[in-house]
Automatic annotation (TrEMBL):
Residues in Putative zinc-finger domain copies: 7-40
UniProt source species: Rhodoferax lacus
InterPro entries documented for this protein: Znf_put
The protein, known as: Putative zinc-finger domain-containing protein
A Pfam family: zf-HC2
Length: 64
């Protein structure tokens, strides 16, 4: 099954997704993995939360 990913591969894809957009095949494989896996959706939520905080931090401007 070429679209099957291990948890390790899935998390690597989620990390890579932060920097670049995934190929449709990787994107699809990741979505499929997230549907069947219990651990990785939790990791994804944490990661999305982290990204949100990072965005807020980036937008923060130091008062003069
Ligand atoms: Zn997984």
């Amino acid at each position: 099954m070429p679209l099957k990913r291990t948890c390790k591969e899935a998390t690597a894809l989620m990390v890579a997704r932060e920097d670049r957009s995934l190929a449709w095949r990787d994107h699809l494989a990741l979505r499929l993995h997230l549907l069947v896996c219990k651990a990785c959706p939790r990791f994804e939520r944490q990661m999305l939360g982290m990204r949100q905080q990072l965005k807020q931090w980036r937008n923060y401007t130091m008062p003069d």
